[in-house]
Amino acid sequence: MCSMFNKSHINHQIMITMQKRKLILLIMAISFSFAFYSQERDTNVICLNFGTNKYEEVKLRIRCEGDSVFYFSGLLKDDSWMLEYPRRLYEKCECFQIDIPTYIDTIRRSICFKQIVDNDTLRAPQFMFDNIDTVVINAGLKMKTDTFPNIPALDSVNNKIFFETILSDVYFLNNITDKEYLSSVELAANGYFIMTEADTAQTHYDNRINRYAETVRKYPDSQSLIAMLNGLKNQYDTKEDVQKIFDNFSGKQKQSYFGIKIREFLSDVYFKNMLLPVWDTGNPEPVIKDFSKINLVIFSASWCKHCIAEIPVLKKIAGELSDKVAMVYISMDDTTTVDAWKKLMINKEITWRSVLAAGNLEEINKQFFNPGLPSVLMVYPDGKYEKIEVRSDAGLKKLYEIAGVQ
To answer: From residue 302, how far is each of 8, 11, 310, 379 by CA, in Å?
Structure first.
């Protein structure tokens, strides 16, 4: 009886041990499956088929905020190029480009797509695809190869300008439903909504804002559109203009990486004063010393031709509005060119204050969202500020009206 009990007890223990092992193996299998699934979802893949056109090498170029560029080599599989990139890059991504390496310094080759949108054939040398596991693009037959000779480029290593020839293989895409891709194509077709030097009329400026807002209403979830708005936000005359465009994005995009940066920009309505060295004495002074007046904070540099061309207008303002308006230069020269700025102050007989950003360029760029040059901020006595274009008749008229001078 005792031996039978022991035998039964041992068998029972063996069964329990085997069940435990099965349970452990099951848990391990499930854990491995989740780990493998998570690992799979850490990357996105763009699958490109170029039909009968053969390439020896294809690379995906991803440009992110701050001009950071990442390259990912493609893998040829069953006549299709598999371009894999980390999903974590997507939230800061501004655009994709497909490169065909030539390994010749003076020749650059890339893929360009053409797409029909609203009965217009649009060209997109840069684009985006949706943030999904795998995007499949059947490019089909190549239409042509466009050649663009003598395009200036910067050698970042030697800091020199050189000229290169760009070869662009053009493919026509049809029946593409990826809304991210379509919005990026429209973005490129609209010249990225950037105003050129010739476009100074107020009507063009208003049309640019309205066209941007209309495109966002069409693609409220577009990463391309919100990334570009973040890059352009400091180019608009007022934050209200940025708000007009931003309001049309979906809640998802307003909470995205770029959406949060734009919201911070829109909520920051007060000028943050700071101490910078005066150009001739080196003594630190507040950028704005007198808030009882309207202040013009002018970002400029010795190497900026448009900044120098702006000086006669600034002298006119200084001569006619000195009782109402205080002016101060912030020189964006670095330590290598700051002496040229000092000479400019003397040679041009500048009468208004000037402080130096050299040594604080990163902080100033961050605080004022990378101001373009020349750039003028109009700061009101209550500390609120907006950008103003004093080189345009409309901007100059606005300044004089606010100062109470007709």
So the answer is: 95, 90, 12, 24
Cα 275 to chain centroid, rounded: 29
Instruction: Single out the residue of 233, 225, 309, 288 nearest to residue 266, CA to CA.
Output: 233
Which segments in the chain show pLDDT lower than 50?
1-10, 12, 14, 16, 20, 22-39, 197-199
The four Cα atoms 25, 30, 36, 37 give a dihedral, to 10 degrees, of: 170
386's tokens: 């907006």
Is the separation of the CB atoms in 356 and 331 below 8 Å? yes
- Report d(CA 205, CA 193) in Å as an integer: 10
Closest CA to 287 of 393, 371, 349, 175: 371
List the chain domain ranges: 43-179, 193-267, 275-402
Q: Residues 257, 92: contact at Cβ < 8 Å? A: yes
**CA triplet 380, 306, 330: central angle to 5 degrees?**
45
What tens digit of pLDDT does each residue of 374-401 get? 989 999 999 988 888 899 888 899 999 9
**Domain 275-402: which CATH class?**
alpha beta
Report H helices in 117-201.
Answer: 179-189
Residue 69, Cα to own-chain centre: how many angstroms? 12
* Tens of pLDDT, residues 323-380: 999 999 999 999 999 999 999 999 999 999 999 999 888 888 777 755 678 989 999 9
Cβ neighbours around 24 below 10 Å, total: 10
